[in-house]
Amino acid sequence: MSSTTKDVSQKKEEGGERNTGIGKMEHPEVPVSVVELCRETFQKSAEYVQGELEGTVEDYRLLEKMNKVTVCKYSEMKHIAMNIETALKELNSKYKNLQPYLEQIDQIEDSVASLEQAAYSLDHYSKRLEAKFKTLEKK
């Protein structure tokens, strides 16, 4: 055997290859205060994250309540719109039923306007006739 082969086999017999620290974790002694600080930091971080999550859950609960209220409001608005639609249909129906009477009223209005014009003309004519009669009576 060569000397290199003897060195490797001798190392294996003595306890293996040289310890380089790779593959094995050696933990040096950590002071207790550092460990306590790490635990406290992790605890505080956990509490912070828990608080954030609780805040988010509360936000979602609030959104859920707001959505429920909105659904109720829109439902009420739907019923109101349906009632308005029904009332509008009734009004349109009544208007259609009244349409012939409204046309008659318009015709009567036109007739009254014509009759009023005739009465003014007759009044004007009677005043002229009276004036002529008075002038003839004076002669």
From TrEMBL:
One Gene Ontology molecular-function label: gamma-tubulin binding
Domain of life according to the entry: Eukaryota
Bias (Basic and acidic residues) ranges: 8-17
GO CC entries: BLOC-1 complex; BORC complex; gamma-tubulin complex
Record-level GO BP terms: endosomal transport; lysosome localization
One protein family per Pfam: BLOC1_2
Region (Disordered): 1-27
PANTHER family assigned: BIOGENESIS OF LYSOSOME-RELATED ORGANELLES COMPLEX 1 SUBUNIT 2
Family: Belongs to the BLOC1S2 family.
Protein name: Biogenesis of lysosome-related organelles complex 1 subunit 2
Organism: Patella caerulea
Organism ancestry: Eukaryota, Metazoa, Spiralia, Lophotrochozoa, Mollusca
